Amino acid sequence: MVFSTSDTIVAIATPSGRGGIGVVRLSGPDAARIAGALVGRDKPFEPRHATFAKLVVESGFSTAEASAKAVSRTNSLHRIGDELVVTAFPAPQSYTGEDVVEISAHGSPVVLSAILTRAIEAGARLAEPGEFTLRAFLNGKLDLIQAEAVADLIDAVTPLQARAAFDQLEGTLTVAIGAIEGALFDVMARLEASLDFPDEGYHFVEPAAAVAAIAQVMAGIDTLLAHAARGRLVREGAQVAIVGAPNVGRTSLFNALLNANRAIVTPIPGTTRDLLTERADIGGLSLGLIDTAGVREAADPIEQEGVSRARGTLAVADLVLVVLDRSRALSDDDRALLELTASLPRLIVVNKIDLPGLLDLTTSGSLPTSSASVKTGEGLDALIAEIARALNAGDCRRDTPAITNIRHTQLLERARASLARANTALEGAVSEEFPLVDLQDASHALQEISGRRTTDDLLRHIFEKFCIGK
Ligand SMILES: Nc1nc2c(ncn2[C@@H]2O[C@H](COP(=O)(O)OP(=O)(O)OP(=O)(O)O)[C@@H](O)[C@H]2O)c(=O)[nH]1
Ligand SMILES: [Mg+2]
Known about the structure:
Layout: E1 9-12, E2 19-27, H1 31-39, E3 51-58, H2 65-71, E4 79-89, E5 100-107, H3 109-121, E6 125-126, H4 131-138, H5 144-155, H6 159-170, H7 172-196, H8 207-226, H9 228-236, E7 239-244, H10 250-258, E8 276-282, E9 285-291, H11 301-316, E10 319-325, H12 332-340, E11 346-351, E12 369-371, H13 380-390, H14 406-427, H15 433-450, H16 456-463
Parallel strand pairs: 1-6, 7-9, 7-10, 10-11, 11-12
Antiparallel strand pairs: 1-2, 2-5, 3-4, 4-5, 8-9
Helix pairs in contact: 2-3, 5-6, 7-8, 7-15, 8-14, 14-15
The structure holds guanosine-5'-triphosphate (GTP) and magnesium ion.
């Protein structure tokens, strides 16, 4: 293992900047000694009790880069003091499974970096991104699914994302995969026994029974995979482009979905000439919302560029909202856009239903539409529900763990393919040996999801995306 786990690491665990409270976290065999040195305490800290202590640090240490920065303006000797609360979590009852000490100070960057510097002088090493959680994983406190869920929970920007991440942290996916692994292990053991005692002339499992058992394992994987697309959408969001002819109310809709007066709306057609993108929380999903220039034959080169960018979004959008204006007859521009988007995932939004209706869609074959008035707000809630439904995200039940992570999806697909190969071999009545190789591979893929089999590269890849201090 290339990761050093025998030393004591330290990091500021709270976000950078000022705050009411800031926390410095230490983990490793010297955590308690280093914390004691920081506050001049010889006695051990009482486990899991908040201990009031005082920090006095002489600033301007030679090795103290962070602290030196903080005082370089005066370059004289200052005493940085603060009142602290120190809490020690002795191994193994801690986040990392090692001795952990958390030091809460006032959330001043100067104070926190002074504590950090002092801890490093006393023998700690600055933690790498995600190193606390990596140690928790290596010490068996979390499996890899849960460690990844910690990062997702921290990064969540909508309640739905937070819930999906917390479900995984609580172990719903771990349990589901454990059940699949258990069933697979059972078939493998029986096939292996048949292989080990060939002279008995007795099958520990009849091939037909093995095929049925493997099919059941595959069904379990299919159930998980069925929800993977939705899960990934929850985690990563989707791109939703708003397109339409000029003046139909795209920007008004964009602003309404953002709940903010983000972009300019005027009665003059051609107001929006560039792409505007914003994150929007719609039905619990974190969406990338794109407002575009009105699509028409434009003479102005700026508007031409805008229109070509608007068309470009069609290729990348997960969902296209085609906005029509109910107070106008269908124009050639509208018709062209409806044709252009016919094969794309789209919702046709008939806007301005507060105005008299002149729009007639019967000539274009009665297309399904959602009607709204951005001006009065009528129909907007239904439209939002419609967007969530179109993205296939409406149904988020708690009893099916959502696979949100592409790594998990790929490993499940690999396991499923191996199981299918094993069954083909079994049905072809070849020796038990061949299907076993495939079953072994399926089992390895499942173990990689939970992290019981990993490589250093995989761990580095996962944990480098964490922030420092987590
Ligand atoms: N009556 C009514 N007017 C609306 C509605 N939605 C938008 N408008 C008006 O329609 C005009 C155009 O709205 P925008 O949101 O700028 O339309 P757009 O499609 O972004 O237009 P461009 O960017 O100029 O192509 C503005 O005067 C809006 O106030 C609606 O539901 N009802
Ligand atoms: Mg606009």
